[in-house]
Amino acid sequence: MIYTSKTGFIRWATLFISLIILIVNTLFNSQSTRADPSLLTPNEQRGLEIATHSDRTFSNFGNSEVKLEMILENAYGQVSRRKLESKTIEVDDDGNKSLILFKEPRDVRGTAFLSFTHKVGNDDQWLYLPAIKRVKRISSSNKSGSFMGSEFAFEDIVSQEVEKYSYQFIKQDVYDDQKVFVVERYPVAKSSGYSKQVVWYKQENYVVLKIEYYDRKKQLLKTLKYKGYNKHDNKHWRAKIMKMKNHQSEKSTTLVWSGHQFDVGLTSSDFSKSSLKRIK
What DSSP letter does each residue of 6-59 carry, written as one string? Predict the structure, then answer.
């Protein structure tokens, strides 16, 4: 549209500015509603409280090291195994920094994954591929992709910060002979590969027992089950086994954790992008 008069242009400009202000205010108000617990519904508030309790159960460990075995099984029952080591450090007022190093077999040895999770905004992730001697940054649009051919996505294997989701308490129930809270959580990030996740929290200590993942079409995609919880150093709950089953491909990946160590003296310098190539 072409305005032939100064008055017409001013009216159009005024209308346009008013529209922009309306959009900005709408976005601000919607964000404020999510951020202010007092504006949540009772079920949203309860879901958030349960998730926060669970986060405290797994937090306050400072830094840690652990060994793990990754067992990949295809739809025909064929199995392959990988051995890994993982290091993690908590960051004040933010998420965690973590480093996963592949040790065996030979074809993946030296592959390293570095992640900086954040309470707000996109996480930072890098993958070092020794075959091409290159550090590759994982973009936010690729974080729903498979992690090294497993049924875990890049977004699954990092710390699940409470702020990354909105919540809805569903019910109290019994799962595997244990009393649980069932909570739905919805990813805030538009780049997530999931429309929602359904989480079963043990009522006694708020550890996670099961998570169902629904794809962007709202169809059940995967189920993750946690087994064999142990309390390390009399304060840190960790599962020994985590098994992810993909219901659409019939593939599964099992992680078996061992040798947990806490407060081992790690610092932020141990999680440097520039050091990825030198890790052995």
Answer: HHHHHHHHHHHHHHHHHHHHHHHHHHHHHH-GGGS-HHHHHHHHHHHHHHHHH-
Residues 6+ apart with CB under 8 A from 264: 63, 64, 65
Contact call for residues 167 and 183 (beta carbons, < 8 A): yes
77: left (phi over 0), alpha (psi -120 to 50) or beta: left
E strand segments, 39-95: 63-73, 79-90
3-state secondary structure 137-149: EECHHHCCCECCC
**69 in Cβ contact with 81 (< 8 Å):** yes
Query: Please, are residues 90 and 105 in contact by the beta-carbon 8 Å criterion?
Result: no
Say if CB 88 and CB 102 are below 8 A apart: no
* Tens digit of each residue's pLDDT (9 = 90 or more) over 29-85: 334 334 566 788 999 999 999 999 999 999 999 999 999 999 999 999 999 999 999
Separation CA 88–CA 266 (nearest Å): 8
Q: Give the CA distances from residue 184 to residues 50, 133, 149, in Å, rounded to whole numbers and listed in that order.
A: 11, 41, 27
Over residues 208-232, the mean pLDDT reads: 97
Bridge partners of 98, per DSSP, are: 88, 115
